[in-house]
């Protein structure tokens, strides 16, 4: 299988338990963080992957819930899933320049 990933990935030697949770908080699944990069991660999901059809969810990285990333589902292969981190879309370049330069 060819690896088309653009970002360097870190694979974990020991199981790193994390959770995925619906954006609306109505569901949660335990999973194992298999590997991660600056742009996404590979997870092994415990239980059904059906809720992931929602496409977007939170990857909760800490037991307190203070460390998390918003993700979107990229692929599913059995109990393994690939996710991409959702990033805020930058404002238009023209608007940024106007704010920086001020009124003219």
Helix content: under 10%
Report the principal-axis shape.
globular
CA-based gyration radius: 17 Å
CATH class: Mainly Beta
Enumerate how many helices there are, as a single number. Answer: 1
- Average pLDDT works out at 83
Strands in their spatial order, largest beta sheet? 2-3-4-7-6-5
Total beta strand runs: 7
Runs with pLDDT <50, length 5+?
96-100
Structure class? mainly beta
Helix and strand succession? EEEEEEEH
Sketch the major β-sheet: 6 strands, antiparallel, barrel
Give the termini separation.
Answer: 56 Å
CATH superfamily: predicted glycosyltransferase like domains
For the record, the count of structural domains works out to 1
Kindly report the CATH topology: Thrombin, subunit H
CATH architecture: Beta Barrel
GO molecular function, one term: cyclic-di-GMP binding
Domain PilZ: 4-87
InterPro entries: PilZ_domain
Organism: Bradyrhizobium frederickii
Question: Helix and strand layout, with pairings?
Answer:
Elements: E1 10-11, E2 17-22, E3 28-36, E4 40-45, E5 56-60, E6 68-77, E7 80-85, H1 93-101
Antiparallel strand pairs: 1-3, 2-3, 2-5, 3-4, 4-7, 5-6, 6-7
Pfam families: PilZ
Domain PilZ: 4-87
GO molecular function, one term: cyclic-di-GMP binding
Give short descriptive properties of this protein.
PilZ domain-containing protein, six-stranded antiparallel beta barrel, 104 residues, Thrombin, subunit H, mainly beta
């Amino acid at each position: 299988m060819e690896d088309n990933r653009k970002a360097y990935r870190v694979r974990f030697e020991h199981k790193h338990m994390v959770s995925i949770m619906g954006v609306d908080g109505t569901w949660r699944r335990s999973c194992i963080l298999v590997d991660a990069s600056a742009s996404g991660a590979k997870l092994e999901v415990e239980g059904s992957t059906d809720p992931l059809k929602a496409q977007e969810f939170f990857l909760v990285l800490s037991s307190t819930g203070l460390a998390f990333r918003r993700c979107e589902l990229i692929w599913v292969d059995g109990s393994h899933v690939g996710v991409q981190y959702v990033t805020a879309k930058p404002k238009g370049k023209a608007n940024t320049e106007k704010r920086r330069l001020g009124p003219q």
